Amino acid sequence: MNKELKISVGHLYPKQLNLYGDMGNIISLKMRTKWRGIEFDYNEINPGDKIPPCDLYFIGGGQDKEQTEVAKYLYEQKDFLIEKRNEGAVFLGICGGYQLFGHYYQPFEGEKLLGTSLIDAYTVAGKKRFIGNVTACTAFLKPSTLVGFENHSGLTYIQGNTKPLAILTVGNGNNGQDNTEGARFKNVFGTYLHGSLLPKNPHLADYLIKLALENRYHDEIELAVLDDKLEYIAHRAVVGKDY
Ligand code: GLN
């Protein structure tokens, strides 16, 4: 058991951005570290709080109203967040949180929300709402598939050195046009997949935990293998499921 290992997690604005069970991602990270005897140091960050240095930051999804509420607090600390990104901290953003990882999110109505520019991307609200199951394939995970469901009107376009997280096999993903889902730059991961994401994709959960620990300890970390029978039953139940 890895008794001496610890991971600090910064949960950004959970009271505002926690749509469709995105809290399940924190529960997955907490349990998958606890089951391995790794200390899980949880930090809830609320509007007005100074964001502390953490190994891994998580931000969930939300309606335009909640995104508007937190965007200014995130934007005020973008330089700090970019510094943490450049130091190798891991970020996971879901849907509305993902959109705020880019340069801006232009909702259908109201002001443009300036983002953190953690990734080279931008989002504009579309007329159509994408709602349904998603299956996408990554180039860095085994199994390669990621599953979840999407519910967004935002259309995200990634550019520069920011790459897609995965390529769609079912669903609309970033914008329903370029067949991409999510984004990755350095250790920043964004996705439209609710579900919640990590309980149904334990291989991604472990990938993120390993990245965060190796960045904290500057050493290769092998995670103990867990019995993920149930998790993969849930995963396979969604793979390829019609929209
Ligand atoms: N409000 C954003 C949109 O509609 C994000 C929604 C979400 O987080 N599910 O695109």
Order of helices and strands: EHEEHHEHEEEEEEEEHHH
The small molecules bound here are: glutamine
Please state the oligomeric state of the protein chains shown.
single chain
By DSSP, the count of extended strands is: 12
In whole angstroms, the N-to-C terminal distance is 41 Å
Order of neighbouring strands in the sheet with most strands: 2-1-3-4-12-11
Described by the principal axes of the CA atoms, the overall outline is globular
| Poorly predicted runs | none
* Share in β-strands: 25-35%
Rg calculated over all Cα atoms: 17 Å
Structural category = alpha/beta
Number of helices, where a helix is a run of at least 4 consecutive DSSP H or I residues: 7
Provide the residue-averaged pLDDT: 96
Helix content: 25-40%
Largest sheet, strands/sense/barrel? 6 strands, mixed
Explained architecture:
With 243 residues, this protein is of the alpha/beta class. The protein contains seven helices and twelve strands. It has helices at 23-34, 64-76, 78-86, 96-99, 197-200, 202-217, 229-238, and strands spanning 6-12, 39-45, 56-59, 90-94, 104-106, 113-114, 121-137, 145-158, 166-170, 180-181, 183-185, 188-191. The strands form two sheets. It has a six-stranded mixed β-sheet with strand order 2-1-3-4-12-11. Helix 1 (23-34) crosses helix 6. Helices cover 28% and strands 30% of the residues. The protein binds glutamine. Residues 19, 61-64, 67, 95-96, 151-154 line the site of glutamine.
